[in-house]
Amino acid sequence: MRSLDKTLDVLDFLMEKGTAGVTEISRELNLNKNNVFRILVTLEEHRLVEKEEETEKYKLSTGSIVLGYGFIHKHPLTKLSIPVLKTLRFRLGESVNLAMLEEKQQYVIYVASEETIKPVKVKSRLGKRYSINSYVSSAKAIRKALKGEAGFVFDYEHNEKTGISGGACVIRDYRGRPIGSVEVIAPSYRLPFSLIQKEIKPLLEDSALDISLKLGYWD
Questions:
Q1: 188 lies in a domain?
Q2: Which domain holds residue 160?
Q3: Per-residue pLDDT of the chain (219 residues; tens, 9 = 90+)
Q4: Of 28, 45, 60, 157, which is most buried by a Cβ count within 10 Å?
Q5: Please, what's the largest Cα pairwise distance for the chain?
Q6: What is the spatial distance between Cα 79 and Cα 45, in angstroms, rounded to a whole number?
Q7: CA–CA distance from 74 to each of 48, 78, 206, 211, 216 (Å)?
Q8: What is the DSSP letter of 8?
Q9: pTM to 2 decimals?
Q10: 42 and 49 in contact (C-beta within 8 Å)?
């Protein structure tokens, strides 16, 4: 099991870092370089990582994508949310995301997205992972729900540095536990707080309720 833990740590590190060499992985994870090399060779054989010829650094390969999407598209949360996301994006005209709370409740992971057709759009968050303590609206809303706030908890974000605004509402499972969120994001000039509070929030709450009911939630 320890060898499996080390292998998963290497995959996790590459997901966060993007690319890294044996020495860097060994140093950052405090692992023996020979062990790191053997792990990478095994992962390469299973098409989960690949080595860049020019830099000789490793990165996740298409096999990781296939594995990830196999999980995402068969997960009930994603399967039941896609039609709701499409409808919400049509009604709002802005990009809509689905975030999932990972099992240890330390991160939110963006697992689905319906992008706006407007020419100016926010960079997609699909496939990205954020700390539960981060500034993104999905993390903020889920964090409040985990602390005990009831209902389809809402929170918003406004980042002057990136020029992004948005809001998110918590999705609950059949036991009432927060398991994810539905989120809208856009350039700040298109989503002022007054608009988010007056028009976006009610639509997000309705969508979160719709998805939660599909998952078996009842109050």
A1: yes
A2: 75-214
A3: 467 778 878 888 887 778 888 899 889 888 888 888 889 888 888 888 888 888 888 887 767 666 666 566 667 888 899 999 999 999 999 999 999 998 889 999 998 999 999 999 999 898 888 999 999 999 999 999 999 999 999 999 998 888 999 999 999 999 999 999 999 999 999 999 999 999 999 999 999 999 999 999 987
A4: 157
A5: 58
A6: 31
A7: 20, 7, 24, 16, 17
A8: H
A9: 0.75
A10: no
